[in-house]
From TrEMBL, chain A:
It is found in: Cell membrane. The chain crosses the membrane at residues 20-43, 81-102, 114-135, 162-187, 208-230, 270-293. The keyword Transmembrane applies. InterPro entries: MetI-like, MetI-like_sf, UgpAE/MalFG_permease. This is ABC transporter permease.
Length: 300, 336
């Protein structure tokens, strides 16, 4: 262990500790503690209102979730899983397609890549407003388009059938550029000789992709899949601004948020329990994806 | 980064999967996938190239830029105009919506709040982050590597929004600007980001500084921080955008509308004026504009921040943490 070089022999031992004291305490207090406290609060009944007691109630929230409220909870888990699978599949397929298409030289391609990357720099509040306008059932362009072309109308984000797919679509729109970025970086790590050799062998485009590019993209694929799974499971701000968890868009995350922070609800203990469920779900799905894909990487 | 010379790329943590992310959006790293032929392209090849270019143009503009552009167009319509022609181009362009939105939404005031909420925590996090990362990356503590690994894994612990809210209430940080700044400045997102980068700064610099009688604090401010400019710039800009865009935390922590940042303001503004789309569009664009300008000017850093987060998020995951920790220290040995 290297010794601290700074200070006098007497102060030398304390300088490193003094250096990390403020940020370290800050992280413990506002970073680590809240995360761990979620476990504790999930065993309580607490409204958070001033003067109300904090009642320890054991597993009450968990038993509640899987007895009295089980249909709501299972529904939220189901919606979360649909959301994750849909977003992950489409975002990665589109991201990879865009990467293959846009990984070219030239200024114009740099501009196209920047445009595709752009949506994610905006706040969910901005993206929410943009797509609420586009999906507006009365004066939005999509409604006019559908009405003009097929004579059908829809309430879009207000429809039980369409709200969830549309929110997923916006999520994919917002973050495809991110997946594209990682895939392009992966593509650029593939040495050119590989392709020269393969094209000498007369491999066609599709075979080139299936047998060369895709396997060599495995690390980028793993990273991307893992990040989209974890990211889309944790996403609730976007769902909140677009559909507010209504019309079948209530994922676990948004259920947590609304049960804890909606006016008139304020069930912080129950919300913490939902945050724990969210954590376990992320652990299972994210861990599963990572484990499977790492094994696949090794096998390749 | 190429400008950093011999120093390793600021990897914001160092790890196995480290693409040359900085260059991805720009054209710095030449794509290896496209073998360049010496011959001049034939007419057929050029036509094919042009066709691909047009396809990419259409995809990027129609699918990705158009939604924002469409919103912007609506902002130039008068409300009666919008009611008559909700989808087409404006008949008679007007700036009235922007001034109306600016006044009715109180965006000027909220803009200042947003700036404060974005700049103050950003600056504090950067400085404190260096002070935290330096002793850890130099290995001054017994379990420096374990500490670092633990931090990375702590990102996967349950979300702590609810306890943070309870904590903020009991510490009187709820619904107050200083309180919000304390929460966001000290929550530690990013404190450890510099550990990997500092490992790339040679220890000989420390020794030389000590021999010259340089004190610790002066050393950090005058030697280490200037050495870290690229990493600080990347993280600073990314942190700024992140804080500016944050909606959930202001929604939870700030109930008084005088304290709201623009995102929180827009969320309510949108709820109040749902049917008056030109006004909402103008407000939305006001909120988006600063970030858009920042993106155009500082694209490279933003991309790096996003991709740096990606490599930090995945390194160490699914791999032996000890290997990760020792690997990053090994790479610093190589760097020297």
């Amino acid at each position: 262990m290297p010794r601290c070089l700074f200070g006098t022999p007497r102060t030398r031992r304390f300088i490193p500790w003094a250096s990390i004291a403020i940020p370290g305490l800050g992280w413990l207090l506002f970073g680590l503690y809240p995360s761990l406290a979620t476990i504790g609060y999930s065993f309580t009944q607490y409204s958070g209102l001033p003067g109300t007691p904090l009642n320890f109630c054991g597993l009450c929230n968990y038993t509640n979730a899987f007895t009295a409220l089980s249909s709501t909870v299972w529904d939220a888990i189901r919606v979360s899983l649909i959301y994750v699978v849909g977003v992950t599949v489409f975002q990665n397929a589109i991201g990879m397609g865009l990467a293959l298409l846009l990984n070219r030289r030239g200024r114009s391609y740099a501009v196209y890549r920047a445009l595709i990357f752009m949506p994610q720099i905006f706040s969910v509040a901005v993206v929410g407003a943009i797509f609420s306008l586009i999906f507006d059932p009365f004066s939005g362009p999509l409604d006019k388009l559908l009405h003009g072309a097929f004579g059908v109308t829809s309430t879009f984000l207000g429809s039980d059938r369409l709200a969830l797919p549309l929110v997923m679509l916006v999520n994919v729109w917002m973050f495809s550029g991110y997946s594209m970025l990682i895939y392009i970086a992966g593509l650029r790590n593939i040495p050119a000789e590989v392709y020269e050799a393969a094209s000498l062998d007369g491999a066609g485009r599709f075979r080139l992709f299936r047998n060369m590019t895709f396997p060599l993209l495995a690390p980028a694929f793993t990273v991307n899949m893992f990040l989209t799974v974890v990211g889309s499971l944790g996403e609730y701000a976007l769902i909140l601004v677009l559909a507010g968890g209504q019309h079948g868009t209530q994922t676990l995350g948004i259920y947590m948020f609304t049960s804890a922070f909606n006016a008139g609800s304020a069930e912080l203990g129950y919300g913490s329990m939902l945050a724990m469920l969210q954590f376990f779900l992320t652990l299972i799905v994210g861990g599963g994806v990572l484990w499977t894909l790492r094994r696949r990487e090794v096998a390749l | 980064m190429s400008s950093a010379g011999a120093r390793p790329e600021p990897s914001l943590g160092g790890g196995e999967y480290r693409p040359h992310v900085a260059a991805v959006l720009s054209d710095r790293a030449l794509p290896a996938t496209e073998p360049r032929s010496r011959r001049r392209p034939s007419v057929a090849q050029r036509l094919r190239g042009l066709r691909t270019n047009v396809v990419c143009l259409l995809i990027s503009v129609v699918l990705f830029a158009l939604p924002l552009l469409y919103l912007l167009l609506q902002a130039f319509k008068s409300y009666p105009d919008f009611l008559q022609h909700p989808t087409g181009l404006p008949h008679g362009w007007t700036f009235q919506n922007f001034t109306d939105a600016w006044q009715q939404g109180d965006f000027g005031h909220e803009m200042i709040n947003s700036l404060v909420y974005a700049i103050v925590p950003d600056a504090i996090t950067l400085v404190l982050g260096v002070f935290l990362a330096f002793p850890i990356s130099r290995g001054y503590f017994k379990h420096s590597n374990a500490l670092y690994t633990f931090f990375i894994f702590s990102g996967f612990l349950p979300g702590g929004l609810i306890p943070l809210f309870i904590e903020a209430r009991s510490l009187h940080l709820y619904n107050s600007m200083p309180g919000y700044l304390v929460l966001t400045s000290l929550s530690g997102a990013g404190f450890f980001f510099f550990v990997g980068y500092i490992k790339g700064i040679p220890r000989e610099i420390d020794e030389a500084a000590v021999l010259d009688g340089c004190g610790y604090i002066r050393f950090i401010f005058t030697i280490i921080i200037p050495q870290m400019k690229p990493a600080l710039a990347t993280f600073g800009i990314f942190g700024f955008v992140y804080s500016w865009n944050n909606l959930i935390l202001p929604l939870v922590m700030l109930s008084d509308d005088a304290l709201w940042p623009v995102t929180r303001g827009l969320y309510s503004f949108f709820g109040e004026h749902t049917s008056n789309w030109p006004l909402v569009a103008a407000g939305t664009f006001i909120v988006a504009a600063p970030i858009l300008v920042l993106f155009i000017l500082l694209q490279r850093y933003l991309v790096q921040g996003v991709a740096g987060g990606a490599s930090l998020g995945t390194q160490g995951v699914g791999r032996d943490p000890v290997a990760v920790a020792t690997e990053s220290s090994a790479s610093s040995v190589e760097a020297r």
